[in-house]
Amino acid sequence: MAAIDVVVFVVFVAAVLFLAIWQSRSKTEKDAKDYFLAGRGLSWWLIGFSLIAANISTEQFVGMSGNAASHVGLAIASYEWMA
What are the distances in angstroms from CA 42 to CA 9, 31, 34, 35, 46? Predict the structure, then answer.
C-alpha cells in the first residue's frame, strides 16, 4: 500500500472513533430498552430501510440470488417483503 492509503485509512478510523466518542457523551437514552427501540421515534419506512440495508451483503447478492434464480424464484426476497 502507498503512504496515502495508510494516511487516509488512519484519518478515517480516527474520525469514526472521534464521532463515536463525541456522540456517546451526549447520552439521551435512559436504559437499554430506550436504546434498542430508538426511543420509539423511528417511522415505519425508516425501520424498513434499516432492515433491507442490514440484510444486503455479499452473501445476499451472490449466494441467495443464485439460489433463488436456480430453485425457488423470488422466495428469498420475501423475508424483506413480509417482515
Answer: 32, 17, 12, 12, 6
CB burial of residue 59 (10 Å; 0-12, 13-18, 19+): exposed
Q: Residue-wise pLDDT tens for the chain (83 aa)?
A: 799 999 999 999 999 999 988 877 776 667 777 777 777 888 888 888 888 777 777 666 677 667 677 766 665 555 555 55
User: Are 57 and 29 contacting, i.e. CB atoms less than 8 angstroms apart?
Assistant: no
CA 4 to chain centre: 28
Per DSSP, the residues of 6-69 read HHHHHHHHHHHHHHHHHHHHS----SHHHHHTGGG---HHHHHHHHHHHH-SHIIIIIIHHHII
